[in-house]
Amino acid sequence: MTKQRLVILGGGESGVGTALLGKAKGFEVFVSDKGKIKEKYKQVLIHNEIEWEEEQHTEGKILNVDLVMKSPGIPDKVDLVKQIRKKGIPVVSEIEFASRFTTATIIGVTGSNGKTTTASLTHHILKQELNVGLAGNIGESFAKQVSEEDYKNYVLEISSFQLDDIATFKPHIAVITNITPDHLDRYNYQFENYIASKFRIARNQTKKDYLIYDADDEEITNWLEKNPVQSTLLPFSLTKTIENGAYLDNKDIKITIDNKQIIMPTTNLALEGNHNIKNAMAASTVAHVLKIRKQTIRESLENFQGVEHRLEHVLKINKVHYINDSKATNVNATYYALESMDAPTVWIVGGVDKGNNYQELFSFVNEKVKAIICLGVDNQKLMENFGSMVDIIIETQFMSEAVKIAYKIAEAGDNVLLSPACASFDLFENYEDRGRQFKEAVRNL
Q1: Domain boundary residue, one of 92, 120, 139
Q2: Which of 183, 201, 280, 380 is 20 to 30 A off residue 389, Cα-Cα?
Q3: Is 110 flagged in the annotation as binding?
Q4: Is position 351 annotated in a ligand binding site?
């Protein structure tokens, strides 16, 4: 019997992980990357005798295969992808491919914001009592983990791009943290296309499966009214009383599933802010479904350290707090950051704008921001939106310079906040690189 041929487009974390799993499962594997493949990934491919190419796509090797796994970063409008689809070759995401080779219980977390924190917090709670991996958009690739140690449970952080290429993928528990306009450049600037993409997480679920979602989010509740799902619904809310699901009662989170209620105080939560109460509700609801002990959930919520580059306290210098929120790559994430500022703030913002509407930030900027430092190649939109709101607005294209300017402007008791509301690709490799450069610049002050 001839081997099935698998082509992988993109030689990054998900691509190389899929290559390892594909080879282990008997596929003939070829990895093709239009850019350069990082040295550490190249070494893995060479060591495992997997065929690869970089800085090109050889069409002859790609268009006569059985299956294509496409990295989430490659848009559908690329010519090669159109040709592959035209030939009827199935295109899947890493999440879809890997899920076919595991019988693990899968918890899938998606949303515009909060998904990394919610996925990390969920994993942090579950790992106290279960054998559980953390993968998807975070850490080591899902496919690699399935090929190497195949946990009994997985918490997956899943982006809309990964959901676009699923066919049979079905998490037992799906979480949608919230939906706000993001990545609209990939969805023909149609918000409803992006919402539909997020809801693919529940498309294969049955009523034995669960969908946990933010009942305060109008986009989510409106969509569910018009497009009902099969799943058992477990909403969470800060404002409503929820019969099945989670809600906030004074300072307690109350979670009810099948008439079993647990109560979690929020007074000692490690993470601050209303958005983190929601993340805690989502994670605790997952844990309650999986019958984790109440004591374990409570302790885990109290000792969870948070996620790097997400409202991360870096240093206090001359009584000024420096806060790294580089992971805020859209307006809604920056909204949460500014909302949680309790002192005058020097705000570092900017990067690649994905069609941002800055209006929802205006009241916070008027109330809390004393100076704005625009850190991007093109800052015109920021200047137009915020120029009249603050006395000081400065442009720069270097992180070290942005931090030095902030240091000069900030006074004792102020915050310096990096919360870009934009993607990082104009000046940085990715948001992690941007966050690390910020932290380094602060440490060098």
Answers
A1: 92
A2: 183
A3: no
A4: no
Q: Quickly count: other Cβ atoms within 10 Å of residue 51's Cβ.
A: 12
Annotated binding-site residue? 117:
yes
Phi/psi at 367 (5° precision): -85, -35
CB atoms within 10 A of CB 189: 12
**Does 69 lie in the same domain as 197?**
no
pTM of the model: 0.83
Query: Does residue 158 sit in the same domain as residue 106?
Result: yes
Beta partners for residue 249, in sequence order:
252
* Whether residue 140 sits in one domain with residue 78: no
Domain that holds residue 12: 5-92
Pairwise CA distance, residues 349 & 175, whole Å: 29
In contact, 53 and 33? CB cutoff 8 Å: yes
Instruction: Please tell me whether residues 135 and 273 are part of one structural domain.
Output: yes
The Cα 215–Cα 171 span in angstroms is: 20
Number of other residues whose CB lies within 10 A of the CB of residue 344: 16
Rounded to the nearest 5°, which phi and psi values hold at 443? -65, -25
Inform me whether the pLDDT recorded for 26 exceeds 90.
yes
416-417-422 Cα angle (round to 5): 145
Q: Is 168 annotated as a binding residue?
A: no
Decide: helix, strand or coil at residue 265. Answer: strand
Tell me which of 340 and 68 has the higher pLDDT: 68
SS3 category, 254: strand
Contact 198, 163 (CB under 8 A): yes
Residues 6+ apart with CB under 8 A from 339: 273, 274, 275, 364
Residue 30 sits in a domain whose CATH number is: 3.40.50.720
User: Is 274 found in the same domain as 145?
Assistant: yes
Furthest C-alpha separation in the chain: 73
Rounded CA separation 301/280 (Å): 7
Rounded Cα–Cα distance for residues 289 and 234 (Å) = 10
pLDDT > 90 in the chain, percent? 80
- With contact defined as beta carbons under 8 Å apart, do 377 and 306 qualify? no
Asked if residue 116 belongs to a known ligand binding site, the reply is: yes
pLDDT of res. 194: 86
